[in-house]
Structure formats: structure tokens, C-alpha cells
Specification:
By secondary structure, the protein is α/β, with parallel strands linked by helices. The chain has 3 domains: 158 residues, Beta Polymerase, domain 2 (2-Layer Sandwich), CATH 3.30.460.30; 143 residues, NAD(P)-binding Rossmann-like Domain (Rossmann fold); 77 residues, no CATH class. The strands form 2 sheets. A 6-stranded parallel beta sheet has the order 7-6-5-8-9-10. A 4-stranded antiparallel beta sheet has the order 2-3-1-4, sandwiched between helices. α9 links the parallel β6 and β7. α2 packs across α5. 33% of the residues are buried. The C terminus is likely disordered.
Length: 427
């Protein structure tokens, strides 16, 4: 039985290709059921995220299964008017196992260390299990991959360093204020980065958020989405008295927050600290505002520098994560190889016992004068010889479960004793 995976990811295909075969989680069950209808595929799991679509299976006929997987993915592409062959990859055996463990640990993600992938792998596995498409091997494989992903997150700091501008902004705010549950924020401008930062603030528990935009209707729309309060641009300086975090990213040709205005606002707020993140180019906040006591002003370049430094830290943590993955992959492969050891031992014993019984009956047909007691002595003699012959190979086989040479030795033994040859077995 071999483990295979075929698919495409952000490393092999652009987003316009990935989105054409993205499978919604609601369609997992139906898709994996279709996948395992092929007679030479025993188990299957379908995993699809914005950055990958992958199809895992177990099979005793890897060549046929690989062709089926590739055709299955190609068919998904053809339905959406796209040819996918140049974007696809396949992996088999240890490479497939290592790939899944690396995916679950977020080392294969577009953003290394992102936390969402672990939940996505779990959702894919549970859906395939619900469809009764998984069995002994893929159940163990995905459970171990998920456990390894959790180990990587708990034993390394791979997810601790923010590496996007929006997440860096929120992390810096938390360093200044601690928890954000008793803080208010103002977001000026509702472009992509501003909205990402806004949602990150909300998900981190900010108490109240005000949203301002030159087009007030847009302020109302975005504020409603996050449970915030829309505010007119004319009230910005008034709002500055009540907020602790300001995120601004507008297309204004002039500074919207000037030093004198902010100094007046700081006087009214009795110099309570304020954290301002100016993501605009040209800048919305007059640079001299950063000279005011208890004003913490960061611009887009400041945040990018922090993000780049954090990326280097994540890369160092990725090395630690890889060591965990290597160890757990070897542990799984040891278990996986043992699946071949046990049936080989059973088949070998059955083969030798069959030969012993056949030869015993032939001998007894020529020794009909022996008493029942003597017949038992001869029978016991044959049994004892078989046990002594098989003892060494049995111990050796059990001892190589975690050895890289296990597969070769098992295959040689099965070939020499013709354990997979029906004709040879009969002889």
C-alpha cells in the first residue's frame, strides 16, 4: 500500500489558476467520494484552501492511482475552462508524508507560520472521514500530521512574529497598551490595508472603533460590517481626544493631522498616550507630530522594517519546526513500515507450516506401521525444526521496523519465498 498526493499550490500556480479548482468545504464530501470510486484507490482526502488544492490517497497500484489523481484534477480544471498539467505535482511514499506534515505545520504556506492551515487540514480530514473515504492508513497519517502541526505551534515561536503590515500595527499597539479591550481606535480611510488593520484590531478585542472616510456612505458601510461607529471627516480632531489608536491611509494631498492640532488634542486628553499608524503615501500625519510627548508615530516604512525583521525571526523558528517535522515523519514511517513486517511474518509462517504439513502427510503415508505416539514424535520434530528456522528471521524482521532497509529486505524475502505468487504458494 502506497501513499500518494497530487495537486497544485501557490508555489506552482498563480491565483487565477488556483481559484478555478478551489473546492468549497461544503463540497468536500461529494468530491472525495468521487475520488475513491476508482477500484485501485482505497482511501482519500481532499484538501483545498486559497493557496492549494491537494488530493491524497492510498493504493496498491501507484502507477494507475497517480494517473487517476492527475486526470481527476485535470477534469476539475476542464470544467472551469483551464488546462492544469503544467501546474500539477505528485508525491509518493515518504515524500507525500513529509509534504503533508510540512503543510500542517504551516512551513509550506504563503505566509510561513500562519495559523489557519492547521484548522483547514483538520476540516478536510474530518469531511473525508465523514464520507467514509479514510481508513487505517490515512486516519493515522492525518492525525499524526495534525498533532505535529500543534507541536510546532506550541514548541516554536514560528507564529509569534507578525509579518504583515496590518498585523505588525496591531502587535505594536498591544506592546504599548497591553490588552486592547479597554481602548478605542480611529481608522481614517477604508482602503485594503486600512480594512485589514481595522479587522485585526476588532479581532484583538478593541473596545470601540470609529471609521472615517471622505465618502461618508463608505464609512457607514464599513463601520456596519465591524460593529463600529462612522464619523464625519470634519469631526476628526474632536475624536482624537477619545481614541488611543489611530490608523490612517487616505489619498489626501496634504497632512490631515498637524502638529499644532494634535498638541491641542493631547492637552485635552491630559497627555494620555496615543499610537498613530500612518500608512499613507504621501503621509497623512505631519512628521513633527512624533516629537510630541506620549505620541507614538509610525509610518509605512517603520512597519515594513519591523515586518522584515520578524520574517527573519520566523525563518529561524522554521528551522526548529523542521527538526520537529523530521522526527515525527520518521516516527510515522516506522509505524508505516511495520504494516508490511507483520503480514510478511504471517505469510512466511503460513508458507513454511503448509510445506511442513504436506511433507508430514507424505511421510506418514509411507510409515503406516508407526504407533500414534511415534507419529506425534515425528510431527513434533517437524514443528520444532520450523520454529527454530523461523525464529531468527522473525526476530530480525521485527527489529527492522524503523530501519531504512526494511522495505528492501521485506520485498526480497517475499520474492525469495514467492509469498505473493499464488502458484508458488501452492507448491
Amino acid at each position: 500500500m502506497r501513499i500518494l498526493v497530487a495537486g497544485l499550490s501557490h508555489k506552482t500556480a498563480p491565483v487565477e489558476v488556483r481559484e478555478r479548482i478551489a473546492i468549497p468545504s461544503r463540497d468536500y464530501v461529494e468530491t472525495v467520494r468521487r475520488l475513491v470510486t476508482a477500484p485501485f484507490i482505497d482511501e482519500g482526502v481532499v484538501l483545498s484552501t486559497c493557496n492549494r488544492s491537494e488530493f491524497y490517497c492510498t493504493t496498491a497500484e501507484p502507477e494507475q492511482a497517480r494517473g487517476h489523481l492527475l486526470e481527476f484534477v485535470e477534469e476539475l480544471g476542464r470544467r472551469n475552462g483551464h488546462t492544469l498539467s503544467s501546474y500539477l505535482y505528485t508525491k509518493e511514499g515518504e515524500d507525500a508524508v513529509r509534504h503533508l506534515f510540512t503543510v500542517a505545520a504551516s512551513l509550506d504556506s504563503l505566509v510561513v507560520g500562519e495559523p489557519q492551515i492547521l484548522g483547514q487540514v483538520k476540516e478536510a480530514y474530518l469531511a473525508s472521514s465523514e464520507a467514509k473515504a479514510t481508513g487505517f492508513t490515512l486516519d493515522r497519517l492525518f492525525q499524526e500530521a495534525l498533532r505535529t502541526g500543534r507541536d510546532v505551534r506550541s514548541k516554536t515561536e514560528i507564529g509569534s512574529y507578525a509579518i504583515s503590515v496590518s498585523s505588525v500595527a496591531v502587535e505594536l499597539a498591544k506592546k504599548i497598551f497591553g490588552q486592547l479591550g479597554d481602548r478605542n481606535a480611529l481608522v481614517m480611510g477604508v482602503g485594503e490595508i486600512s480594512q485589514l488593520t481595522l479587522r485585526s484590531l476588532v479581532s484583538n478585542g478593541i473596545r470601540q472603533v470609529y471609521v472615517a472616510n471622505r465618502t461618508h456612505e463608505r464609512s457607514v458601510e464599513v463601520a456596519k460590517e465591524v460593529g463600529g461607529t462612522p464619523v464625519e471627516f470634519s469631526r476628526l480632531l474632536e475624536v482624537l481626544r477619545d481614541v488611543d489608536v489611530v490608523v490612517t491611509s487616505t489619498a489626501s494631498p496634504r497632512h490631515l493631522i498637524r502638529r499644532d492640532d494634535l498638541a491641542a488634542a493631547m492637552h485635552l486628553r491630559r497627555n494620555r498616550p496615543i499610537f498613530i499608524i500612518d500608512l499613507a503615501v504621501p503621509r497623512d500625519v505631519e512628521p513633527e507630530c512624533g516629537q510630541i510627548y506620549n505620541v507614538f508615530l509610525y509610518n509605512i516604512d517603520d512597519l515594513k522594517a519591523v515586518a522584515e525583521g520578524n520574517l527573519e525571526r520566523r525563518e529561524k523558528e522554521a528551522a526548529r519546526a523542521q527538526a520537529i517535522i523530521d522526527r515525527e515523519v520518521e516516527r510515522f514511517l516506522g509505524w508505516y513500515r511495520s504494516l508490511e513486517v507483520v503480514p510478511t511474518i504471517v505469510s512466511l509462517r503460513e508458507k513454511i507450516d503448509g510445506i511442513r504439513d504436506e511433507e508430514f502427510q507424505k511421510a506418514m503415508s509411507k510409515l503406516s506401521h508407526l504407533s500414534e505416539k511415534d507419529r506425534k514424535v515425528v510431527e513434533q520434530f517437524g514443528t520444532s525444526v520450523v520454529q527454530k528456522i523461523l525464529h531468527g528471521p522473525t526476530v530480525r524482521l521485527k527489529g527492522i521496523e524503523n530501519d531504512e532497509s526494511a522495505r528492501g529486505l521485506i520485498h526480497s524475502l517475499r520474492h525469495l519465498f514467492r509469498l505473493d505468487d499464488e502458484e508458488g504458494t501452492k507448491r
